[in-house]
Design goal:
By secondary structure, the protein is an alpha+beta fold. It is built from ten helices and 14 strands. The protein is 50% helix and 19% strand. A five-stranded antiparallel sheet has the order 4-3-7-6-5, with helices on one face. It has a five-stranded mixed sheet with strand order 9-11-12-14-13. β13 and β14 form a beta hairpin. The longest helix is centred in the N-terminal third of the chain and has 49 residues. The chain is rod-shaped, with a radius of gyration of 49 Å. It starts with a helix and ends with a helix.
Amino acid sequence: MAIASRTADIKRFRPSVRRRLLGYLLAPLALMLVIGIAVDHHSIVSPIYAAFDRSLSHAALTIAAQIHRQPGGQFDITVPDHPLPLRALPEEQFFYRVSNEQGATLAGSADLPVVPARHHDEFTYQDAEYHGMNLRLVSYRLTEAGESLVITAGETPHRRDRAVHQMDVSFGINDSVQMLLVLGIALLGISVALRPLQRLREQISQRPAHILSPLPTEQVPSEVLPLVDSLNTLLGTVRESALAQQHFLANAAHQLRTPLTGLKAQLEVLGREAADTPLQARIDLLHGGIDRLAHTANQLLALARAEPSAHRPSHFLPIELPTLVAEVIGASLDRALSHGIDLGADCQPTEVTGVYWVLHELLMNLLDNAFRHTSPGGHVTIRCGMTQGQPFLEVDDTGSGIPAAERERVKERFYRGKDSGGDSCGLGLSIVEESARAHGASFSILDGRCGRGTRMRIDFPASDPDARRSSSAG
């Protein structure tokens, strides 16, 4: 569990080009969003405050218009103490004061601060605190009937603060939407730009392990081209190494066949000369050893030639499976009769694309395995046909069978099961496995159809022949 958890953590934090690009985009976009909101805030505060200051100055002028001097020298100021029409919001409060140059209050709030000024007919503004409230004040100086008066008006900044807040929210939403759109377009651009890498990844992941042909580079971006070139160089090196091993194995097996043939001929001559002598038994043992060694050499040669990378696309041709089965049965009929085995076939018209001699060797090895495990009086049946659009080829016997636990291991090279016999070299089913892989087919070991024995089945792919040829080339 701990190993699985660490593996999951490694996958979670594995570097990603997409995440790196996204990170490089998110940081400047977030910074631009903050800067944009700050700039918008500063750009809207001054015009909004100026507009409200003009409204406040209009209130001061309205008060000035209500000042009249009576014949007795007194001023008649008809503005009420709380001029409700001048308030825009219920929670907003408005204050005013009319005073002379000496500071005497003629009307309004006597303790309302006066904003200092230098000239008459000039509006001066100031923020002040009044009775625990923040006010925006304006003072206006005028001369009425030869006397200098100061009109001061003040209001709480609820309206202007609300307006600034609404504008901040509006600009914030607008900037955020724009940034999200930019981010969405950037993500789309990243996805489109990374599609060649996605296609390259799928192309590599879908390639069978035995395909060592170079990757095409026509659609590869220039940034990834050096990586693909290096990978193609590695594939070429591995291919050359695999081919060198195949050639060595094939040459070694081929070179063994000539001296073995000579040894067998000499032993036959020696056997005739030593007939009815004590040496006859030993010569027979040597004959058996030479036969097993020759069989192993032939199997090694067949295994080397069955490797998927040993075949070119031009080697794959249309093959009628019933024709192949008939030829193999004809070549194996004498052996079946000598072992007392009933050899038969159940074939339907079926065509596959493959290498004829490879499929011939595959079927011969399946029959050899069936003969080894089937007792006299048993049955071996070769079948071919179509199942759900897929061609299949199988050998069904009534022999001792293969335990389920060993069915994968018997496909390994040089592995011999408990009932394989002393003359088996453990390569027959390995040759079948490699031959099936060379044709893009799957090799499975199943229970016999009659409830006993073993059924060796080859399921060929249902894809078109051209695709099978290209997938088997390497």
